[in-house]
Amino acid sequence: MDALENKLDKVTVLLERSEVAExxxxxxxxxxxIWRNVLAGLARGVGIALGFTxxxxxxxxxxxxxxxxxxxxxxxxxxxxxxxVQHQLEGKTY
Length: 94
Description:
mainly alpha
């Protein structure tokens, strides 16, 4: 009987560690679950927007520095892009 009681105590401790009661409590209150998901989605969206803004600003800054160096390869590449965009705006095809 003591072995069974010890096993039961171990299972009880493991269930408390896994926070099953908190999960069941959350499922029983759907408004709380929805509110947490809305906040998580909002935080995720703001994080993505800030991260993309930082990334794009860094890339633009690096491109600006490269443009100031007047490198022949980069200058030719940018000139090709400008030429392609101008042709597209004029409605010409290749």
